[in-house]
Each structure stands twice: as C-alpha cells, then as structure tokens.
Amino acid sequence: MGEPNERTDEALADVVYRALLQAIIAGDPRPGSRLIERELAERYEVSRVPVRHALQRLESEGFVVTEPRRGAVVRLFTRGDLEQLFDARLCIEPFATGRAARRIAQGLESPDRLAALVEQSEDLFSAGDESAGISANLRIHAEIVRLSGNDLLIRSLEPMLGRMEWVFRLTHEARDEEQAHEHERILDALVAGNAELAASLAYAHIELGRAPILAALADVLTD
Fold first, then answer.
1. How far apart are CA 91 and CA 191, in angstroms?
2. Topology of domain 79-216, CATH
3. Is the dihedral of CA 219, 55, 19, 44 positive or negative?
4. Where in the chain is the domain with CATH 1.20.120.530?
5. Residues β-bridged to residue 66
6. Rounded Cα–Cα distance for residues 32 and 49 (Å)
7. For residue range 121-178, what is the model confidence (pLDDT) as tens digits?
C-alpha cells in the first residue's frame, strides 16, 4: 500500500534537490545560510519528507552540512574540496573510459548514445543554450562511465555529479572550445576501441581543466 507514496516522495525529492542545487549554484541561498525544512516545504509546496530526502542527498554530495543547534546549512567549498574532486575523477573516469573502449570493441556496448550527446552538447552551445549544453556535458561523463559496465564505478561517480555540475555551471567559459574538441577525441578513441588512447585522453581532459577551473573559482573557494 505504501509503494505509490514512496515513489511520489522519491520523485518530489528529486524535484526539490534539483531546485535547491540550482539555487545554491546561483548563490542564493549563500554559504552559511540555514535550510529549514518547514520553509522549504512551503516554498516547493511539498511535505517535509521529500525536502528531508533532498537535503540528505545534498549533504552526501557536500553541498550541505548539519550543524548543532542550526540544522542543515549551505556549505562553503574550499580549494581542497575541489582538488579532491579532480583527484577522485582521475581515479574513476580514465579507467572507466578504457573499459568502455574495450566493451565497444567487443560489441558489448554501443557508442551511439554518447555520440548523440557529444553532438547535442555542441549544438546547444552553438545555439546559445548554455544551461542545456552544460547538462549535456554532464551526461557525457556519466554515459562514458556507464559504458564501462562496472556498477561500482557507476555508483562511485553518482555522488560526484552534483559537484561536477556546480563546477561546470560556474566555469563553463573557462575551456569551452577545448572541452568540445577533447570530447570529440575521446569519442573517436572509444569508437575505434583504442582503450589506452581513450583512457589517456580522459585523464588529460580532466587534468587540463584543473588549473583554469581553480583559477575561475578563486573568488568562490576558501583556502
């Protein structure tokens, strides 16, 4: 009897999560602000259950912390947080990209969905729809890891996607043209089934973004 309500709460929690994430990215609420369940439930016209689930998800992704006597508070990101994100991605994405290339070469996976995402991302940016283009970019990274066929890698990336989106949306102008070219090269290596090249390109793609992204976020991050 409880399943329909559980599914509804899960869907509503995702809606609240997306709305809060976009608000945090936009800087309102600002770091240090309290997130009060009752007020958020009224704002998004939902019960407190999906709000609680959304806050738990944001906390697991590092956007929110629970403080004594204050409850949920928007967390300020540090340079160390971002360095850790890059390091974690370097541990997961290049290896997953190499596996994806092997699975494509073996006929176990198709690169068609990834190719469509790469094309869609370029088209959206060309049309000036930066928000949708950034969403497509995020799906490119998630799709490559999905193509690895490794459930643990896929689940390991999932908690990072919100933080990756935060970075992508605040720094999308830092390396737009380079990123598009790098995505195309990674796709070509995957289609060719060249695992070593695909993994190397994925590693370089992430690492080359580190310095310009840290520079672009210098005024946002604390030491």
1. 22
2. Four Helix Bundle (Hemerythrin (Met), subunit A) (1.20.120)
3. negative
4. 79-216
5. 72
6. 23
7. 999 999 999 999 999 999 999 999 999 999 999 999 998 998 999 999 889 888 778 8
